[in-house]
Amino acid sequence: MTSPTIDRFSITGKLPHAKQKADIVVVGAGQAGVAAAVAAAKGGASVLLVDENPVSASLMGLDTPLYFGGRMTRAVDNKARMIEQVFASDPQLEEAFEAGVEVSLGVYAWGAFQNGPGMAAMPEAAIGLADEERSWMVAYKQLILATGSRDLSLSFQGWDQPGVMGANGLHALIKRYDAFAGNEVLILGSGDLALNTALMVVEAGLKVAALIEVRDTVQGDIGLADKVRGHGIEILTGHVIVSAKGGADGVEQATVVPVGGGDSRTLVCDTVCQAIGVVPAIELFNVLGGKLAVRSDLGGHVPQRTGAVSTALANVLVTGDCAGLGSLDAAAHGRAAAALALAGIAGQAMADEPVAAQAPGLDAHAYHTDWMAALLKVGDDSIVVCQCEEVTRGDLTAVRQPRYLGAPSDVAAKRDINSLAADGPLNQDQFKRLTRACMGQCQARRCREQVALILAQSSGVDVSKVPLAGYRAPVRPLPMSVLAADDEPAALTADWDVWFGIPTQWIPYQDIGSDREPYHIANLTDTI
Amino acid sequence: MSNPKGATVIVVGGGVSGLSAAWWLARSGVDVLVLDKGIVGWEASGRNGGGASHYQSPLFAEEQRLWPLMDEMLGYTTEYQRGKIVLATTEGQLKHYKYVAQMFTEQGSPSHEIDRQEIRERVPMSGDNILGGVHLTIAGQANPQRTVQGYAWAIQDLGGRILQHTPVLRLVSEGGKVVGVETRDGILNCDSVVVAAGPQSASLLAGIGIDLPIAAARAEMIVTEPAPMMAIGAVDGNGLYGRQTKRGNLAYGGGPHEWLDVGPSGPSARPGSPLIRNLTKRLYGLFAKAPSLRVIRSWAGVIENTPDGRPVIDRIDNVTFVTMSSVGFGLSPASGHAVRDLVMDGKCSFADLEKLSLKRFDGLDKDWREQKGWVSRSETL
Questions:
Q1: CB < 8 Å to A496, chain B
Q2: B331 with B59: CB under 8 angstroms?
Q3: First vs last Cα of chain B: how many Å apart?
Q4: Interface contact flag, B296 A502, Cβ < 8 Å
Q5: Measuring CA to CA, how many Å separate B139 from each of A429, B234, B323?
Q6: 3-state DSSP call for residue A194?
Q7: Nearest CA among A126, A110, A97 for reference residue A38
Q8: pLDDT tens-digit profile of A321-337?
Q9: Residue A69 above 70 pLDDT?
Q10: Among B160, B210, B330, B346, which residue's beta carbon has the most beta carbons within 10 A?
């Protein structure tokens, strides 16, 4: 429905066209993303490939986008040098350049927007990008998300100190940045992720203190496990970490115990790498309003796909780990996304391959649940879950108001997780509002999954039934000076009102219908 | 009351207006039941600026009387704070904010201009681009999310009931009188009903022949990481509304909205837009000395407006209905009191609400939305 009259205070016609355009924007320069970008460029499209690496040292300090655990060397402070390092670490990027792809490194994708239900304001589909200085929009015809995965982190005594980090974070610091500040790594988990992490550490000339596994058997590939053991590395199955202790520079040792009880062991290490799991990075897809599915076999919340790479959003394709974890040929997957994107631009119908049956991976939710259960058993309620907001396990289940608000009243103190559960299925966003868990600067990267796991276990529901705590733009925490628009159209400035621009809304009640109305209308019609 | 699962009064809509009404009714010992399509306070009631400063309303005095008492009356924390500062970066804004300060003063909230020295002291993050400002002494802000849950729990503490995830499909009338509401689980009976269902109120009331003219729209806000605490956290201006939370985050909105068609089951999506860059530009203008403060979130809420932007608080037979026309959170302590009075006594005991009655829209053109350009350009949500 259109109307000849446009409310001048509405957003209709106000958002500017992007100054930069590309036929296809690819987000993420991992294997799938680069393969997609190269294939799309070879197909004749203009292609922009953006990757946020190297991320700034200050974002790394917020464990964004990966869980770096403060274990980076000072080398990451020099972004220009890091761009060279990242470029040198990945020969594929050279290939992308040669294929004519415009490659932007060190550029954050913080949001993506297109018209759909409840949104007709976009002049075109566009992605929001930023570097350390400014933000801008890039219009696209087709968007390929190859955003990979991010780290799963779980809490234990002492996890909130430097040296506790994620598998993706460790991989980035060793392989991509050559800037890992640790020497001896204790690894949590024994799936392929953990085993490969151990081999990477050894290959880098560093030590692995041990692998810790809460289940009774090694979870990953037996051949990989043999290789790890071949380096003299112990895999302690049926064990859980109790605590990490350290000093000013973070972790110095960790204590583990048998899950069923027994004698504890203390292991010397300067790093505890959580390699229990990673989670598909669905932030941008969620911001776009894409439909999600809960697929424990693919890592948790994943884009709901209509084919191997396609989604219900006609011009958005997902490829690689962000589409769902599993052993697939990432490059072929990326090329499939490029083929569909090219067909979309040409206006041709092209059937996507069906979602490939992937080798059954780990049942992620069951595995994460086992880990969380073991960690809850050996740690008490005082353990912090949300580091940014200092929310403990006990605060979460008591639905306790934050400490800066003082002690709750007697009636408020009686409220807890059971009060909320009694009134309907648990919703993580409700706990977020009341306890502030997941409200912090790290944008819940360190606690989103474990809060869901703790809520599930405390209330006896399966974690797959806990609704995702949604993502909103900007999906990277950006300084005001960076995110601030430098391209505001004159009409947007001129017609800006603090609220709806309805003068009659603000006339003092007793003056309604009086001869003072014109005076008020005159004052209330000024735009600000 | 034929159905034991019903109640003397059923409140349709667990937004802040419905919750406050139910709370006031429960305080008077009324058997009250709140039905919500989802979780209480999940729409605009929990997604707004938290302002509690509405000089224009006949409920203003009651709003300002009640807020300082709310934590104790509810038994739950609202994070209410008194006082508000509004800063201008342009001469046009300054003129407008001085007018607003004059209005507050006329309504009994002494307000005055503050000079640049005082602004620097009260708002250390503000920069040299601030031309001036005003201090509204009787005005304030609270935390919407904590407050809506506080209302809900307070209702339960008083013996009232809340059914979440229970959309009301229609109002059931017999012999010209509403006798209950239909849900997916059947009909719940009541002696009277309060309709406070936000944008969805229109279709519910249309079912019993009441034409409530409202149009829904989406508005957006941004949130930063915690900033150094200011003594008065409700600092806004530069075309924005918002506040510093007690945690220190800056939460601000303003600027253009998008008109929407919302279906009977409520908004299915609340998308954001690149407008957050323009909101950030304005916020950076307000706090120019905090360039590196990070924006960490944004949100959007869907709210309804009447043609003149003023509330409708009215009763026809045993149906009481309330829309606060996009300005409901701050006024909620008072609007609930007014609705309670209407339900129980047929008349508000503390304010004249005559000009907020529905009959002012008698004869409104059917195409009023088109005439104003308040129409959706996207599919129905």
A1: 239, 254-256, 282
A2: yes
A3: 36
A4: no
A5: 29, 9, 22
A6: helix
A7: A97
A8: 999 998 789 999 999 99
A9: yes
A10: B330
The domain limits of chain B are 2-64+145-213+308-362, 81-141+216-305
Q: How confident is the model at residue A484 (pLDDT cuts 50, 70, 90)?
A: very high
Return phi, psi of residue B331, to 5°: -80, -5
Say if the Cβ atoms of A401 and B96 lie within 8 Å. Answer: no
Q: If pLDDT is split at 50, 70 and 90, which confidence band does A359 have?
A: low
pLDDT classification of B283: cutoffs 50, 70, 90? very high
pLDDT band for position A360 (cuts 50, 70, 90) = low
Cβ–Cβ gap A7/B99 under 8 Å: no
Write phi, then psi, for A399 (nearest 5 degrees). Answer: 45, 50
The CATH T-level fold of domain B81-141+216-305 is: D-Amino Acid Oxidase; Chain A, domain 2 (3.30.9)
Interface test with B, best of A283, A428, A505 (most B CBs within 10 A): A505
Q: Which of A12, A15, A498 is closest, CB to CB, to B274? A: A15
Nearest 5 degrees, angle CA A96-CA A98-CA A104? Answer: 45
By C-alpha distance, the chain B residue nearest A442 is B296
Predicted confidence at residue A357, as pLDDT, reads 64
List CB contacts of B197: < 8 A, sequence separation 6 or more.
B12, B13, B15, B18, B168, B204
Average pLDDT, chain B: 96
Buried b vs exposed e over B181-198: b needs ≥16 C-beta within 10 Å?
A: bebeeebbbbbbbbbbbb
Question: Which chain A residues are Cβ-neighbours of B239 within 8 angstroms?
Answer: 496-498, 528
Q: Do B96 and A14 touch (CB under 8 A)?
A: no
| Closest in B145, B277, B377 to A135, CB measured | B277
State residue A358's pLDDT score: 61
Identify the band that residue B1 occupies on the pLDDT scale cut at 50, 70 and 90: very low
A494, closest residue in chain B (CA to CA):
B255
The answer to whether the beta carbons of residues B248 and B227 sit under 8 Å apart is yes
B2-64+145-213+308-362: CATH architecture: 3-Layer(bba) Sandwich (3.50)
Q: Which chain B residues touch A422 with a CB distance below 8 Å?
A: none
pTM above 0.95, yes or no: yes
| CB contact burial A109-133 (16+ within 10 A = b; e otherwise) | bbbbbbbbbbbbbbeebbbbbbbbe
Q: Residue B60's pLDDT is what?
A: 97
Chain A contacts of B103, Cβ < 8 Å?
506, 508
Contacts of B330 in chain A (CB under 8 A): none
Min Cα–Cα distance to chain B from A287, Å: 7
Give strand pairing partners of A400.
none
Predicted confidence (pLDDT) at residue B221 exceeds the cutoff of 80? yes
Measured between CA atoms, the residue of chain B closest to residue A477 is B296
At residue B2 the predicted structure's pLDDT band, cuts being 50, 70 and 90, is very low
Nearest-angstrom CA–CA distance, A165 and A172 = 11
CB distance B280–A427 less than 8 Å?
Answer: no
Residues of A in contact with B225 (CB under 8 A): 440-441, 477
**A10 closest CB neighbour out of B96, B254, B256:** B256
- pLDDT of A356 strictly over 80: no
Residue spans of alpha helices (H) in A120-279: 167-171, 192-203, 222-230
Helices (H), A215-297: 222-230, 283-287
Q: Which residues of B touch A474 (CB under 8 A)?
A: 276, 295-298
Residue A70 pLDDT: 97
ipTM above 0.90, yes or no: yes
Interchain CB contacts (distance < 8 Å): A and B: 271
Contact list in B for residue A292 (CB cut-off 8 A) is none
Taking an 8 Å cut-off on Cβ atoms, the answer to whether A481 and B254 are in contact is no
| pLDDT greater than 90 at residue A1 | no
pLDDT of B236 strictly over 70: yes
